[in-house]
Known about the structure:
Elements lengths: L2 H33 L1 E13 L5 E5 L4 E9 H8 L6 E4 L7 E4 L8 H4 L3 E6 L2 E17 L2 E5 L3 E3 L4 E3 L2 E7 H5 L3 E3 L3 E6 L3 E6 L7 E2 L3 E6 L1 E17 L5 E6 L2 E9 H5 L7 E5 H5 L5 E2 L2 E3 L4 E7 L3 E7 L1
Parallel strand pairs: 1-4, 7-12, 8-13, 17-20
Antiparallel strand pairs: 1-3, 2-7, 3-6, 5-7, 7-11, 9-17, 10-16, 11-15, 14-16, 17-19, 18-24, 19-23, 20-22, 21-24
Amino acid sequence: MSNAQESNKSGGYKIIIVFFAFIISAMVWISVSLSEQYFTTLEVPVKILNLPDGYSFDSDLPEKLTVKLKIIGWKLLVLQNSVQDFFVLSAPRDFHDRKIDLKNALSNNSWLTREGEIISVSPEQAEIRIARAFSKKVRIVPNARFDFKDGFGLAKPIELSPDSVILTGTKSALERIDSITTDDYKGVDLEKRAILQLALKKQLGIRASDDFVFLTLEVQKILDKDFFDISLEAVNLPADRQIRFFPDKITVNVQGGLDVLSRLTNKDFRAIVDYKEIISDSLGVIAPNVILPLFVEKKYIDPPKVRVVIRKI
Length: 313
């Protein structure tokens, strides 16, 4: 065997030895790390149990409690990768305003105490008020933002299904609510029709008839288009008067979605002039009022004003 071959073989052994040494060191480090104590903070959602039928609750509790834990590394790893549980509280039995010591409620939350030592719960106290449940219909407000590709946009207003929900809660809680929002959402580079399912934001002590809302976005190429020869018409014209316009037809330029514009003709537009406005104008020149089809926006009309001649019959 040549010196070069022996050198390559020796180098290969060294690489293998270094690799296994690295693996063993990493395993030792992980083992030591997982055996150490750590401090962590959890944001835990609250759930109230044992409410009587036909009753709800109002509270100064936040949606989530802040729980600080002292916990062994491997348990922390398991906790971070497990499905988040709720911090469970039992409804007061006496139906009166009642302060609850949240740290004393840990006995109902063994999933937390068995994982580690509870350092603190914030807030430490809260009031829970039990009262008869009422219902109220409120509108849904999407908490969503949309960015479109260049040249694209909404061809129609966003459709919501449902557009409202029935909320159930105490009378005092419902009085403070006139709408319900969705979770945050941001759409990016939209260029075609989309249907989104967004969750409605949870509110402690409030039950909603639906958990989700569907948003339909009619995203299309946005274009400008001219519609020619739209006839002018007079409204509120007395029976003994006749009107002539110069010119008697106009062009309307509108902006809208490609599919929307392709279905329109000049017959879908009305250009009207109110006789009351005509007689109040001393110059005899007036701007027509253009009534547009749905889902288009007027950019301009040509000519912007027309001359009016009134004749008695």
